[in-house]
Design brief:
- By secondary structure, this protein is mostly helical.
- The protein has one domain.
- Helix content is 65%, strand content 0%.
- About 14% of the residues have low confidence.
């Protein structure tokens, strides 16, 4: 599993941060950058339950569930701030592991997600259609509600994760 997260984070960072260059070889970048991701963490705590729900309900891989949730949570962190994220992570253990779990490298790769466009890029890098974002949201919202997250914070998350009509 660590290898899968490492590859996702590397591909996401390359996709989001690398300039478009015709001579760029993604396979070389993946193989040379995998070692740099050695500090990526495993999903822990109650977040494992969320990843399992996403896998069973949406038919995504563990890497897609982990990476997609991490991208959505990073968007929330960047939009709502650290206080709201502290509320989330205190109610549902392991959510911080989806944001890089203390790994400065994986955390910095996700930290650039500040809009739904960034989330869409992450989903694309994971091999998912951007339409999957709106399939992830109700599963994550239901999980957070079951963890005791208040309706005010859930409403804010819904607003951040739902595209403008």
């Amino acid at each position: 599993m660590n290898a899968t997260i490492k590859q996702f984070l590397l591909v996401s960072s390359i996709y989001l941060l690398a300039p478009t260059v015709n001579a760029f070889d993604l396979n070389d970048a993946l193989s040379s950058g995998t070692e740099a991701m050695a500090s990526a963490s495993e999903v822990s705590g109650e977040a494992q339950q969320l990843v399992g729900q996403l896998q069973s309900q949406l038919g995504v891989t563990q890497a897609q569930a982990t990476g997609g949730t991490g991208a959505l949570l990073q968007l929330a962190k960047n939009q709502l701030g650290n206080d709201s994220m502290s509320t989330l992570t205190s109610k549902a253990s392991g959510l911080s592991s989806l944001l890089g779990g203390g790994s400065s490298l994986s955390g910095s790769l996700l930290s650039g997600i500040s809009s739904l466009d960034g989330v869409q890029s992450a989903f694309t890098a994971l091999g998912m259609d951007s339409g999957m974002i709106q399939q992830f949201v109700p599963v994550i919202m239901s999980f957070l509600e079951n963890q005791g997250i208040g309706s005010s914070l859930l409403g804010q998350l819904q607003g951040i994760w739902t595209p403008d009509s």
